[in-house]
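Q: Could you fold this chain for me?
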Amino acid sequence: QVRLVESGGALVQPGGSLRLSCAASGVTFGLYVMSWYRQAPGKERELVAVITVAGSTNYADSVKGRFTISRDNVKNTVYLQMNSLKPEDTAVYYCNAVHQIMARNLNYWGQGTQVTVSS
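A: Sure. Below is the predicted structure, expressed as structure tokens.
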């Protein structure tokens, strides 16, 4: 049974920091491209950050320089370090796992974790 479980979401003040975690089970973690998405009320789900099986990363322009995605293939966990948080970052953040080769068949989502940036 494949599971992706996000954690770390919280209420934080503007300028603050959070680290989100996504723990994966039931998959060969090292074969998956891992991503973080977010969805704010009334908005489309957007890609925030991606990390490939080789460790290459990409970020949405809105978070570049503030967020860092990383992965630990021993712990089967992907992280999103979020610094200098803004109210516009408020959203439900979702973890996504896509198999490097069999992407159409092996694509999984976590349940989401709420991040609220407000004073």
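A (continued): The chain has a mean pLDDT of 97.
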